Amino acid sequence: NQVGTVILFSKAACALFQYAADEVVGENIKMLIPPEIAVHHDSYLEQYLITGQRTVIGTTNQVRAVQKSGSLVDIEITVRELSGIDDEERMYTAFLLDLTDHLEMLAKQTMLAVSIDLSPRS
Q: I need a surface site. Which of 24, 54, 96, 109 has the fewest CB within 10 A?
């Protein structure tokens, strides 16, 4: 919602973040954000509510998120504002993609390309 409280937490989100839904619902979304970014989250929401200027809403970004264990996971996140849900309060939804496998594959491809480039030429 407009103050960052989690209203729903999907099964896929539970698997990604290693939390049960009831551990997250009712809590602030900042619990899933690294501290150096979370410290600014409230001001981003406040700025959007006052000015309508979007920093994250309506965009797709690659970021790191925090799992229950404290481990960081690379994700792609798209945040959208929901309309027609509640006239009193703004609501948002986030679509997440776990980039772990994708980034590991890219790293392997890069290593392979480097090893091919460094191989002796005949």
A: 109
Q: Can you tell me the distance from the alpha carbon of 76 to that of 62, in angstroms, rounded to the nearest whole number?
A: 4
Give the predicted TM-score (pTM) of the model.
Answer: 0.74
**Distance from C-alpha of 81 to C-alpha of 92, rounded to nearest angstrom:** 4
Residue count (the chain): 122
HEC letters along 63-108:
EEEECCCCCEEEEEEEEEEECCCCCCCCEEEEEEEECHHHHHHHHH
Q: What is the pLDDT of residues 52-79, one digit of tens each?
A: 888 788 889 999 999 999 999 999 999 9
